[in-house]
Specification:
15 helices, single chain, two-stranded antiparallel sheet, alpha/beta
């Protein structure tokens, strides 16, 4: 399958984008419709340590405990739909461990759908264990064969009943790690915006083919290994290791990378930890999963309400399975998700979805530079410049960074957004570095290869077929 790049916006204006509705909704699993007029809770979980050592124990953990607990609580609480996400632990890259889990979850979902009418499905998120020092492409890793195992996992998942195939891919991670620790926005632009997009196109073209052969919905990806590292390092109001203006710019760049999965034929929803999903939805009109205030079991951020503004699935990120006072952890966190989603769907049913959207947005919009650029109206503007430069991975990533800088500067100058002196200085430094870059992609690549060879650990152009 050949990727088709987005060169225009799906929505005519930012105001047209609302929660629970996407221009290209997805149907999967047992009666589950995403982006078709209702928000769906998406519950994410992890097995207890030690259960991965034995196929029977792992199956029981995922199927008899986690999946059954989730669906029991959904029916008990009266939630009409639920999307489950199984992020495979690394040991599941072998058939004997993963296939009983995937097939077992499918069976439980079918049982609950038939008995109670609940709409449900499971996203299977496979592990991307590829290592840059060993090689990202098949034939390069002679020790672990992780690139080959990557695609084998896709086959295992889809052949055994995955409703949705997704991944958190690692292309460009070697540059992201270097860029965040050294404050080098050009390294991030090259590694994530350019090289990461090339890797996305490579893996997702094949993932889409595998999914469609098995009637599985190819979902989406996230720049978890890049922009999320930047965001988490930037931290909260008491943290100062990475400046939040730097993190915001990396998030804008990440949207150009995450979008590639959909350009390769993935249908959505994209992954919950892809905070850039709002930008991608604005461009492509496909459903997005988001996380925020109901993912406090996993991490804290500065935009817990804002990220709910136009979501189609609402996620808790991930929680380890264990008992709590209100039930098991997955039951408690599903309750948290389910009632928030009920509020969203009530807003939709009473035609107040734009009001709720704006309240979610305004609540957190000025907490940080990153939340400011992800406010849906500003995210739309970033999407526009990505689409306008859609044919070039480099130029669209560069344009996204420039637009994010412009939005932050305008917010600061209008006194809508507060920045510390350090945050402003980093913003201006990034602006100067990006403005000095070549206007031609070939010249940019040549410059970066020369600058970063021998500097960025594990940088190898062969990892990207170059």
């Amino acid at each position: 399958m050949t990727s088709v790049k987005y060169t225009g916006m799906a929505y005519k204006s930012a105001d047209d984008i609302v929660m629970g509705t996407a221009l290209h909704p997805v149907s999967e699993g047992f009666g589950l419709k995403i982006g078709a007029g209702q928000v769906v809770p998406e519950i994410n979980y992890a097995p207890r340590p030690g259960t991965e050592k034995d196929p029977a124990k792992l199956r029981k953990e995922y199927v008899d405990y986690i999946t059954t607990d989730i669906l029991n609580r959904a029916v008990t609480a009266g939630f009409p739909a639920v999307h489950l996400e199984t992020e495979w632990v690394s040991q599941m890259n072998q058939e004997k461990l993963c296939t009983p889990v995937v097939a077992g979850q499918k069976e439980v979902c079918e049982k609950f759908h038939e008995e109670y009418g609940i709409a449900c499905g499971v996203r299977q998120t496979i592990p991307d264990q590829r290592e840059h020092d060993m090689g990202l492409r098949p034939g390069m890793d002679s020790v672990h064969a992780y690139p080959e195992k990557f695609f084998e996992c896709c086959d295992y998942a889809c052949e055994n009943g995955a409703d949705n195939l997704s991944v958190e891919s690692v292309g460009g991670k070697e540059f992201a790690d270097y860029a965040v620790t050294h404050g080098d926005i050009v390294a991030f632009l090259f590694g994530v915006g350019y090289l990461g997009s090339i890797d996305m196109d490579y893996i997702w073209t094949q993932m889409v083919d595998i999914a469609k052969r098995n009637r599985t919905v190819p979902g989406g990806d996230t720049d978890c290994s890049g922009a999320n590292v930047s965001m988490f390092m930037a931290g909260g109001l008491m943290d100062n290791d990475v400046q939040k203006t730097f993190s915001a710019i990396t998030r804008a760049i990440s949207a150009a990378r995450t979008l590639v999965a959909w350009e390769a034929g993935a249908q959505g929803p994209d992954k919950d930890c892809g905070y850039e999903g709002i930008i991608c939805k604005a461009i492509a009109g496909k459903p997005t999963t988001q996380e925020g205030k109901n993912c406090q079991c996993a991490h804290c951020d500065l935009m817990g309400n804002l990220t709910a503004q136009v979501c189609d699935c609402w996620s808790n990120e991930s929680v380890e399975y264990h008992p709590e006072f209100g039930g098991t952890s997955v039951q408690c966190w599903l309750g948290s998700l389910g009632y928030e989603v009920a509020l969203m769907n009530t807003a939709i049913q009473t035609h107040q979805e734009k009001t709720l959207r704006d309240l979610y947005c305004i609540t957190d919009m000025t907490r940080s530079a990153e939340s400011y650029i992800l406010a849906y109206n500003n995210a739309y503007e970033i999407g526009k410049v990505i689409a306008e430069n859609g044919d070039s991975y480099y130029l669209r990533s560069k344009a996204a960074a420039e637009k994010a800088i412009e939005i932050i500067e305008n917010g600061y100058n209008s006194k809508a957004l507060q920045l510390t002196k350090k945050q402003y200085d980093v913003l201006e430094d990034c602006k100067k570095k990006i403005a000095a870059l070549p206007t031609e992609e070939d010249a940019f690549v040549e410059q970066c290869v020369k600058e970063f060879t021998g500097v960025v650990p594990n940088f190898n152009m062969k990892n990207y077929g170059l």
